[in-house]
Write a structure and sequence with these properties.
Layout (H helix, E strand, L loop, with lengths): L5 H18 L5 E5 L5 E5 L6 H17 L4 E10 L14 E10 L2 E11 L5 E10 L17
Length: 149
């Protein structure tokens, strides 16, 4: 992943993996990195209604602008697939993942860490896939924050 905030993002992913193993889920959050790497963490509430997601992302966008954000990251658990032509929630071969989507001055990026639930409900973390993307996967946000450029 090509971002100045790689160390911070790696820490967020590691912390989220521990949260997932401990609680069985990840509570969605936004991380807003401002000047001097100061970070604001905002808990998010997502329902199945896409309007709620847009509203939450809009609030994050406003807070990011206020804090002169250098990097904005959203993290949640989500379905993941490698076939970009199929929406992950509709793909029978989808995998569960810790999904992180962010934006910095270079544009948007995404990181997904696969995981599997074992028969005893223990979580086994899998491979990490990351990429700088031109189009979001459509899972969390449909447009860039537009605050980091």
């Amino acid at each position: 992943m090509d971002t100045k905030f790689k160390k911070e993002i790696d820490k967020i992913l590691k912390r989220s993996g521990k949260e997932l193993k401990k609680t069985g889920a990840i509570k969605p959050k936004a991380y807003i990195f401002g000047d001097n790497r100061k970070v604001n963490v905002i808990p998010l509430l997502f329902s199945d209604d896409p309007r709620d997601k847009r509203l939450a992302v809009g609030h994050v966008r406003d807070i990011a602008k206020y804090h002169n954000a250098k990097c904005v990251v959203l993290i949640s658990d989500s379905f993941y697939n490698e076939r970009l032509e199929v929406r992950p929630s509709l793909d029978p071969f989808r995998k569960e993942s810790i999904f992180l989507m962010g934006e910095d001055e270079k544009g948007k990026f995404a990181v997904a860490q696969e995981y599997a639930r074992k028969f005893n409900n223990k979580i086994k973390l899998g491979k990490i896939v990351s990429d700088r993307i031109n189009e979001p996967y459509g899972v969390m946000i449909e447009e860039p924050f537009g605050v980091c450029s």
